[in-house]
Amino acid sequence: MRLPYRRIDPGAAAVAVLALVLRTPLLFAALPGVGNSDEPLNIAVGVRMASTGTLDAHTYRYPGLLYEVIAGVTQAFRAVGLHVSSHGAMRIENLGVAHTDARSLIVAIRFVGVIASVATCLLVWATVRGVLKSFGTSERWGRIAAALAAVTVAVSPLATANSVYATPDVYAGFAVALTLYGTTRILRAMPHGELICGFGVGLALGAKYLAAAVLPVIVAYALSPGRRKDLLKVAGIAAAVFVVTTPGLVLHPGAVLAGVKAEAIHYQAGHVGAEGDAPGFYLNALFRDQPVLLDAAGVALVAVFRTGDLVRRTLIVIFAYAIPQFLLLSTMAVRFDRNLVPLTPALAVLAGVAGPVMFPRRHRRAVAAVTAAAAFLPLASSARLYPRLDEHSRTQAAAWVAHHVPDDQPVAVESYGPWLDPDRFHLVPLTFATDRPAVQARALILTQHAAGRFLSDPVRYPREAAAYRELTSRYRLAARFTAGSWIEVYVPR
Known about the structure:
By secondary structure, the chain is of the alpha/beta class. It has 22 helices and eight strands. Helix 14 packs across helix 16. It is globular, with a radius of gyration of 24 Å.
């Protein structure tokens, strides 16, 4: 018997292709250098797991999903006869300064994240499309709204950049999108909602201890009286997925708790150069990344009180995640814009669901045109990400040092600096150069991601900025490179 042909929606396909085209070139950025602060350690842990044949990461700053992905890709490489050295896969010299001898392995690991990011876009599309179709919105406008909602994630510079790092944020974003898709199936009395929600919540916990992902599921069942008994199924599936992704929960529960506690203390105690005014920082980051989503959140808030039952319940469920998650981030002393990656899919769903039902039919064309223009506004920034992520300034700085500094001379390198041959120079790795103000080096290398944190804001960091001025008074600027983040090379006066 022939199966009925199901045509692929051209809008969904176009969004997937757009997201893939923007992300694929970034897979190769900076290699063989690895400049993300978390990526080298994450890859080292995953490769070690593959080498020792265990699923237990023995480190719990993050839960285990990311490490299992890395270990799985490593095992797959070895299974087909490709050599992966436990040492050469990631050689770490300093914070944000690493080098890999396994470039193809890193690209493959990053590509899994890209697929997760593209799948996140498609889940946003499916969520919006399903809700609007059940609500009775016309086929045409439902497809347009779903495509525009997915586009906001596809062209987001923040989502694009973080999709190519071996870090947990992209997986957390996928898990949230999967959970929200499941909750809308529950609201629409569709099958498999509890299964999807269980996997989504379990993956959210296994990716980044994202407990806020539980809230929209609870609210969805609270708004669906006839299905509340299924909440136990969700809890069971989520717990099983969490244990599978983080087996330390069973093997070393005390160590997992200590890891979670240590990370919580870190976010509350502060992180030099990345702290203060978290609410304003995150709002500003959202506005710079995808401004239409902030406007859409306001429209969705109004729509809660002015729309039909299904849309109202959907918006309430999405807000049940988005508001607590934003408030949680805003209460922390430490703030990084990557923490918004798991929030973006929820805002995109709010935009897609609320927009078509809040405006009269006679205004829909104009609203759609304005929304499309706003949604695609960050496209140019995403298309220009490669030079920034490639950090060519690091390569230039390394070449300058190799040409001008004799062998076996001391070279002091701050965090996020260039990779230098450890067999040629006497390297002095410094988190911040002012940690050792008396350092004597033939070359002193300062970076935007280290020294720049303080020099760009001397009002907030007067002591640190003064310390850098004092340090550089003993040196003279010999070279400055700006193809990416800036890097300055100083030599003694």
